[in-house]
Design goal:
Keywords: ATP-binding, Cell membrane, Membrane, Nucleotide-binding, Translocase, Transport. GO terms for molecular function: ATP binding; ATP hydrolysis activity; ATPase-coupled transmembrane transporter activity. Belongs to the ABC transporter superfamily. With about 250 residues, the chain is an alpha/beta fold. Helix 4 packs across helix 5 and helix 5 packs parallel to helix 6. It contains 9 helices and 10 strands.
């Protein structure tokens, strides 16, 4: 099996001296869907910013699809690592949906019929093809989240990184997005505080706390470990049990 993401002994300290990561090891194989869980301040965002070279390791290495994340590879690394931000406003800025989706691949040199095909395919994958000529400003929150996802898919990434994908979505939009994500054939790393969403979408979860990986295993087993969750300030919704019938990771 091909490895999509390989993080080895990754350590990082901010200029003020705060040590955000302490020797993180993480390996994600192609096609895996993995949730990255942890309390605020655990180092999740710091880790994600190393995946596309925004931050440079103080120690250790990161590779995406076998390509080291180093300065001379950053253009290709940033195509391979597709980050869908928590707020669609950070990604949608063109007059129409189609222009927003075309922006990324065009920036990587795709033109003409190939670019049009990328846009059409990406919008079809997220169920938004009929909205291609609309302004993103006129879409619902859930629709905007799916268009933001399409802008990343159009670049054909090696790994899709989702930052709190379910935040601020109503139940219908949340379900629609889950259906889209489950149907995608792409490696996925989902950063989330939404533990039921992690269970629904990701068979495997990694718990990060205080800059260290403290747990890595099947999502259902980790969410059933209430002592571990409490120790790392993670909490299931009231009345929710990972053992409930109908909740199957990655179904």
């Amino acid at each position: 099996m091909t490895t999509s993401l390989a993080v080895s002994a990754l350590a990082f300290a901010y200029p003020d001296g705060h040590q955000a990561l302490h020797g993180v090891d993480l390996r994600i194989e192609r096609g895996e869907r993995v949730a990255l869980l942890g309390p605020n301040g655990a180092g999740k965002t710091t880790l994600v910013l190393h995946l596309n070279g925004i931050l440079t390791p103080g120690h250790g290495t990161v590779a995406v699809g076998g390509l080291p994340v180093v300065k001379e590879n950053l253009r290709e690394v940033r195509r391979r690592v597709g980050i869908v931000f928590q707020d669609p406003d950070d990604q949608l800025f063109m007059p129409t949906v189609a222009e927003d989706v075309a922006f990324g691949p065009a920036n990587f040199g795709v033109t003409g019929a190939a670019l049009a095909a990328r846009v059409r395919t990406a919008l079809e994958r997220v169920g938004m093809a009929e909205h291609a000529d609309r302004s993103p400003l006129h879409l619902s929150g859930g629709q905007r989240r799916r268009v933001a996802l399409a802008t990343v898919l159009a670049c054909e990434p090696e790994i899709l990184v989702l930052d709190e994908p379910s935040s601020n979505l109503d139940p219908t939009a949340r379900r629609e997005l889950a259906e889209v994500l489950l149907d995608l054939d792409v490696t996925m790393l989902m950063v989330t505080h939404d533990l039921p969403y992690a269970l629904q979408l990701c068979p495997r979860s990694v718990v990060l706390d205080d800059g260290e990986v403290v747990a890595d295993g099947p999502t259902r087993e980790l969410l059933a470990d209430t002592e571990m969750l409490g120790r790392h300030r993670l909490e299931l919704p009231f009345g929710f049990s990972p053992a409930l019938r109908g909740w199957r990771a990655g179904h």
